[in-house]
Design a protein that fits this description.
Structural class: alpha/beta
Helix content: 25-40%
Low-confidence stretches: none
Mean pLDDT: 96
Oligomer: single chain
Strand content: 15-25%
CATH topology of the largest domain: 60s Ribosomal Protein L30, Chain: A
Radius of gyration: 20 Å
Distance between the termini: 20 Å
Length: 286
Amino acid sequence: MDKSCARTVDVSEIMQAIRKLAMNTTSNVPKCAISALEDAYLREESPVGKEVIRQILENHRIAREESVPACQDTGVAMLFIEVGQDVRFTGGDLYEAINEGVRQGYIQGYLRKSIVTDPLFERVNTGDNTPAVIYTDIVPGTNIKIMFAAKGGGAENMSGLVMLPPAAGVEGVRKFVIDQVRKAGPNPCPPIVVGVGIGGTFDRVALLAKKAVIRDVGSSNPHPKYAQLERELLEEINKLGIGPQGFGGRTTALAVNIEFAPCHIASLPVACNLNCHAGPHDSILI
């Protein structure tokens, strides 16, 4: 490595950035989601559905102005971190700093702590919402990009994954996604964002769906065929009639986002991850 191009970053800087993200993200719904809700309000034909969207928008306004969470479920702290390959960390362990940022953010921000130590036998709350779920990618350069997402349990519980035979094709993917949303019904607090992962392996396809669900509402996959499938799935989902908060209407989803990856010739993994209309996430570049 050319030392002239290297950059040194103290992990305390990462900790402080994550602390701020944790405290601010849950009260500031992404602007793209607010715009999509405003558009949905104008299009919604159901009087009840329209009133629900109005109340959702009012809730988000209050959350933003009073700096309080838009939803009581401030979720699992998920961190997607892109680290420039020419960055060198000093001052301690990077993952310990990340968890300390989450710990301080959730405690100082008076956010609900939702993590238990043992998933099956001893479901004791950790008291600080750690450990976080951390994904790290190494990328060229000297920058560090941190994406923070607070993933609520209600929507997360409605996720699904299937290993389809390749012969299932587009129609098999379409049926799985539509069925998943239909089964979810009102549980993920619609209007929802639907993240779809296609390809990879059993484990990677779930991560693809997770990355898809926190992509900006209104963005499209750069591949034209996948972008077309996103539009078609969104139209079909909004014909299900589930509607805002499950009270009926034409606004069940605000977006369908697809991410894909190469896979084995014998496989067609598909995963579906749902987010509520708030879907709190934000990022920072260091």
